[in-house]
Amino acid sequence: MHNLSLLIRGEFERMIKYKILQISLVVTVLWLIMLWMIGSEEAVTFVPLFIFMDASMMSVLMIGANLFYEKQENTLKTLLITPSTLPAIIFSKVIGSVYLALQSTIILAVSAMILFGLEVKLIPLILFITLIATLHTMIGFMFSMYAKDFNGLLGLMIAYMVFFAFPSIFYALGVIEGFLEMVLLISPTHSSLLLIDYTMMKDVALWIRIFGIVYMSIATVLLTVCVVYPNYMKDAVRD
């Protein structure tokens, strides 16, 4: 437990050192400015959309950037020779990533409640964001393992956005309707968006909520056990 607390503390210190925490706050402020410009009438559409983008895409980008900075400074190699276990090292990074997502989510949600009178189920939202950010942190881990450099990570992230995030955004804006909505359920990003929509008092069927939670939980476990855990050490020592 002591080692884990030190790892988490070190993770936050590195996020501040690499300006990741500061950038996350700046992005949150940009979301708020955009909401203010959009106005209260469209807030019900764009608040969940901004939270969705921050918890999914920003989680992938932030953990990827963090890992690449640590590789450059050989921090990952150093961590592997400490008494800390590999699961504890991975868990500390997940904690940091989830914190960034929750920080932005709470600021956006509370601001929307105060400024626009938006009704939000805050506790379910926090629980769902924790799951969403954890899954996308694992996706970020996977991308950083297969990318040769930061540009490669950005390329993988853009491809992920095109095939998974953009269709969900089009759905939120009313561009995609009909049977295509059901097809989108194979996308983890779409399940994420629907769970966030539910916390904003939108009508989301119970079976869709259950499917989304189970689907993302299984995907998180599979990525952790089959991709991140067995390949983390090889990725850490790769030049």
Features of this protein?
mainly alpha
Molecular structure report:
By secondary structure, the protein is an all-alpha fold. It has one domain (about 1-235). The chain contains ten helices and no strands. Helix 3 (about 45-70) runs antiparallel to helix 5 (about 85-115). It is globular.
Topology:
Layout: H1 2-17, H2 20-38, H3 43-72, H4 75-80, H5 86-116, H6 122-146, H7 150-172, H8 180-183, H9 188-199, H10 206-237
Helix pairs in contact: 1-5, 2-3, 2-5, 3-5, 3-6, 3-7, 3-9, 5-6, 6-7, 6-9, 6-10, 7-9, 9-10
Structural class by helix and strand composition: mainly alpha
Query: What fraction of the residues are assigned to beta strands by DSSP?
Result: under 5%
Gyration radius, to the nearest Å?
A: 18 Å
Number of distinct helices: 10
Mean pLDDT: 88
Query: What would the principal axes of the Cα set say about the shape?
Result: globular
Q: Helix proportion of residues, in percent?
A: over 70%
Compute the number of structural domains: 1
Largest sheet features: none
Number of strands: 0
Distance from first to last alpha carbon: 31 Å
Order of helices and strands: HHHHHHHHHH
Low-confidence parts lasting 5 or more residues at pLDDT below 50?
Answer: none
